[in-house]
Amino acid sequence: MKLAKGYVLRNIKGNNYLLPLGQNIALHRRGIQLNETGLFLLKSIQQGYHEKKLLALLIEHYHASFADISALESDINIFLKQMISFNILTSDAPTNITTGVPTNPYNHYFNIGDIIIAYHGPDVLLKPALLDFSCKESFVNQHWTISTSPPLNLPLGELIIKTNEVEIFRSNEEYTITFFPVSQLLRVTVSLDGTHACFYCISSFDDALSEQLFHAFRFVYLITAQMNGCFALHSSSILYKGNAWLFSAASKTGKSTHTNLWNTQFQTPVINGDLNLIRISNNQAIVYGLPWCGTSNIYSTKAYPLGGITFLKQHTTNTIQHLNESEKQLMLLNRLISPTWTEEMLDFNIDFTNQLSTLVPIFHLLCTKDPSAAARMKQQIDNISLN
Q1: What CA–CA distance (Å, rounded) separates 309 from 325?
Q2: What is d(CA 356, CA 52) in angstroms, rounded to the nearest whole number?
Q3: Which of 7, 25, 139, 253 is deepest in the core (most CB within 10 A)?
Q4: CA-based angle 210:211:214, to the nearest 5?
C-alpha cells in the first residue's frame, strides 16, 4: 500500500489537506481533508509501514488502552476505505502513468459500446464472450478490480434495492451490491460516478465464480453505460437490410422464438438473443453488441443502425396494434434494464426513451408462434422501407 502519484500534502489555515495535481486534476480526482489520526496514518504508510502494522502504531501513538482498540480499528478501516475509493492509496504494484491504476500481467481492456473498461484480475475469471470485446489500452471509463481481501466491515449506507437475488446499498461514496445466494462472490462496490468497481471474491477461482462475475460485470457496466448515454433494452435482435431490428417481450414469452422464425424463413442473422445496447448519436440510434446474451449464446461485437423496435405479445392472430406516443415511451421504459436505483437514474432513462420513441418506428405486434408472425412483421418493415 502506498500513496498514489500526483498528490501533495498541504496545510491551509491550520487544516491538513491531501490535494490532487497534474493528471489527477484532469481525471477529476478528489482531494481529502485529514484529521490528526488520518495524518498520522498517511505518514506511517509513506514511511513504508504495511496496513497490518497500523493498529499497533496507533496504539503506541495514543497510548491506547485495551478498551480503545475497537475504535482505533474502526478509524483505520474508515480511513483506508476512503483513501482507496478516491484512488489516493494504491497497491505496491507498478501503476499506469496515464490512469494511475495498478498494472499487472493479467490486465485486459474491453470496448463495449465505445465504453472502455480496464480489468485487473486473473485471466481465468474472464468468459470467452467478454474476451471477444478486448481492445488496446485507451482512455478508461470504468475499472474492474478483483480482490481476494475480505471487504471492510463498514456501514453500507441506505438500502435502496432488496430482492431475493440482490441487495443494493448507497452511501455518500459508493454503491454496495450483494448477490444471493452468496458464494464465491462476496460483495461488489461501485463508486457513485461509476468509474471504479471492486469485486470481492474468495481465492478459489473456478467456473462458478467466473459465471457469477460475468453477471456482476453486467450490473456494474450498465451504470457507466447509462452515464455515457448508452441504454440496454431487454430484447433479441436481427440484422435486416443493414439495420438492427429489435423484438422485446417479457421473459419466456416469445422474443427468441420470433427472431428464430426470421432466421429460418429469411436467413436474417441474429445479433443478440437477449440484450441490446442503444446509443443516440447525431440524431441517429445505434445498436452496439454486448457480451451478455442470456441463455441464447448469440452475441455480436459489431454496431448497426437501429431500424425499429417491436414489442411482442402472444395472441391467436397476427395483428399490429397502434401505439400512441406515451404508450411507446412507457413500453420502452418498462423493457429497459438500465438501472433505476435513484431519481437521477430514472430521469436518464426517461430522457433517453423520450428521444428514442421519436427517432425510430415502434410497433406492438400481437402474434402467434407460427412463421406467419414473422412474415406479417416483415411486410410491415418492408412497407416502411418503401415509404
Answers
A1: 14
A2: 53
A3: 7
A4: 85
98 has pLDDT over 50: no
Cβ contacts of 24 within 8 Å, gap of 6 or more? 4, 6, 7, 100
The single residue listed with the C-alpha cell 451490491 is 177
pLDDT at 185 over 60: yes
Q: Where are the domains of the chain?
A: 2-90, 108-227, 230-386
Q: Which three cell numbers stand for residue 355?
A: 428521444
**Residue 85 vs residues 224, 260, 334: alpha-carbon distances, Å:** 16, 45, 33
Note if the bond before 105 is cis, omega within 30 degrees.
no
Grid look-up 495514543 returns 62
Residue 79: φ, ψ to 5°: -60, -50
Contact 353, 329 (CB under 8 A): yes
State mean pLDDT over 39-61: 83
Strand intervals (E) in 23-103: 32-34, 89-90
Q: Which three cell numbers stand for residue 353?
A: 426513451
93: left (phi over 0), alpha (psi -120 to 50) or beta: beta
- Say how many C-beta atoms besides its own lie within 10 A of residue 296's C-beta: 16
CB atoms under 10 Å from CB of 169, counted, come to 19
Residue 314: all three cell numbers together: 402472444
| 230-386 under CATH 3.40.50.1000, yes or no | no
Sign of the CA dihedral running 203, 104, 77, 172: negative
* CA neighbor of 131 nearest in space, from 113, 103, 112, 110: 110
Cβ distance 291 to 132 under 8 Å? yes
Task: Please report where in the chains the cell 443478440 appears, as a residue.
Answer: 272
pLDDT at 366 over 90: yes
The reported pLDDT for the residue numbered 111 is: 97
Count of all residues that appear for the chain in the document: 387
Contact present, 24 and 3 (Cβ < 8 Å): no
Torsion angle of C-alpha atoms 50, 55, 57, 59, degrees rounded to 10: 180
User: What per-residue confidence (pLDDT) applies to 31?
Assistant: 81
